[in-house]
Specification:
By secondary structure, this protein is an alpha/beta fold. The chain has helices at 13-21, 29-48, 84-93, 142-151, 169-178, 208-213, and strands spanning 2-5, 53-60, 63-70, 75-80, 98-108, 114-122, 130-134, 137-138, 159-164, 166-168, 184-188, 191-192, 194-195, 201-202. It is globular, with a radius of gyration of 18 Å.
Amino acid sequence: MNVHNIGKNNSVFNQFIAELRSVEIQNDSMRFRRNLERIGEIMAYEISKKLNFNEVEITTPLGHLQIPLIEKQPILATILRAGLPMHQGLLNYFDKADNAFISAYRKHHKDGTFDIELEYMASPDITDRTIILSDPMLATGASMVLTYKALLRKGKPLHTHIVTAISSTQGIEYCKKHLPNNSVTIWTGAIDDELTSKAYIVPGLGDAGDLAFGNKE
């Protein structure tokens, strides 16, 4: 499975990751959402290079020319609610894409453990389509794997690109173990080595959903 760590190279992308992590800047929820959106836009540009293109003739006021355009728009899928800002960034660039939404959350138990619950999915047929599946944090990887498997009820995709702002080493290894290596690619902005006992990434950034949309009960 190919893993692209965009933050390894020096670029303005790292500014957006740094602001997501900063306790001083992340108090501004609007800026936090905008930075996730920007990251989604950059990821969309990078992923677009991997898609199939066809030459299409267009007419300008002064003549005609052939331009390579995306052969078939991807399906943009995201995990509610934290994934919405990044999804919007992807949609800004793939503005003709179909969309899918999956509701997944951690159901915590008194002993400190939790299960991943999927309660809702709205998706078109994904047969032979390219999927771009986004969620800001890839912690244990369990939510991503369950979401991918849930999407398979809607068909077999041509290829799936997983997009995340910050990943843990453990989450990436879990995805490599439980997802098909030849038809899934991971795109991430950073890879952190540590998970807490409650499965939060360290140094990470905290709870992306709460920072973007406010605390939940």
